[in-house]
Design goal:
Blueprint (H helix, E strand, L loop, with lengths): L3 E5 L4 E7 L6 E8 L2 E7 L1 H20 L26 E13 L4 E8 L16 E8 H16 L25
Helix pairs in contact: 1-2
C-alpha cells in the first residue's frame, strides 16, 4: 500500500499548540494551507527537541562563511503567531521524525511518521508507513515556529525548587504539610 503524504510546501501556518490543562496537555503540530489542515499529536519532549534543532540548523547557516541565505537571528515580528490551534482532528500520533535543510528552496524540512507497534526502540519509521507529514518552512517561518514552540513547552506546570519535578495543580509532595 503506498504511503499517504500530507505535504505542505509553503504553508500558511505551522505551529505547535496544546489542548488540555498543564500536566494533562496533548501537544499538536498543526499545519495549514488554505482549507487543508493536518494535526499530529506529539510528545512534549519531541516538540521541545524539534524547536531546539530548528534553531541549531538556522544558527549554523548564519555562521557559514559565504552564506548565501538571509537567515533571521530572531523571529520576524510579522510572523509571530500566538493564536489558538484551529479545530484539531488528530491525523496520527508521531513516532519518528526527521529534520533537514533544502538549499534549493532555502527551507527547513520536517518529516513526521506515525508511531506504530512495529517501530523499534529508536522509533524508526516503518518502510511501509501508511502515512507521513512533510512540511517545508521558509527560514523566517521556521524561526517563528521554534520561538512559539519553546513558549508553549515552557507554559507547563511550574518546577519544584526542592525536587525538580513538576508541581501539579492539585498539590505536590514537597509542598504538602507534614502530618
Amino acid at each position: 500500500m503506498p504511503t499517504i503524504v500530507h505535504e505542505f510546501t509553503w504553508p500558511d501556518r505551522v505551529v505547535v499548540g496544546t489542548i488540555g490543562r498543564p500536566g494533562e496537555r496533548t501537544f499538536y503540530l498543526q499545519v495549514r494551507t488554505g482549507k487543508q489542515i493536518v494535526s499530529i499529536a506529539m510528545e512534549k519532549q519531541q516538540s521541545a527537541l524539534l524547536a531546539e534543532k530548528i534553531d541549531e540548523i538556522l544558527d549554523q547557516l548564519i555562521a557559514l562563511d559565504g552564506n548565501p541565505f538571509s537567515i533571521p537571528t530572531g523571529t520576524p515580528i510579522e510572523l509571530v503567531d500566538n493564536d489558538q490551534l484551529d479545530t484539531v482532528e488528530e491525523q496520527f500520533r508521531t513516532g519518528a521524525m526527521s529534520l533537514g535543510w533544502d538549499p534549493t528552496t532555502a527551507q527547513v524540512v520536517v518529516e513526521a511518521y506515525p508511531l506504530s507497534g512495529a517501530d523499534g526502540p529508536d522509533d524508526e519509521p516503518e518502510d511501509d508507513a501508511p502515512e507521513m507529514l512533510l512540511v517545508r518552512m521558509p527560514v523566517g517561518t521556521a524561526r517563528a515556529f521554534a520561538q512559539r514552540t519553546r513558549e508553549v513547552v515552557g507554559a507547563g506546570r511550574p518546577i519544584c525548587s526542592l525536587c525538580g519535578q513538576p508541581i501539579d495543580p492539585d498539590g505536590h509532595i514537597c509542598l504538602l504539610p507534614e502530618v
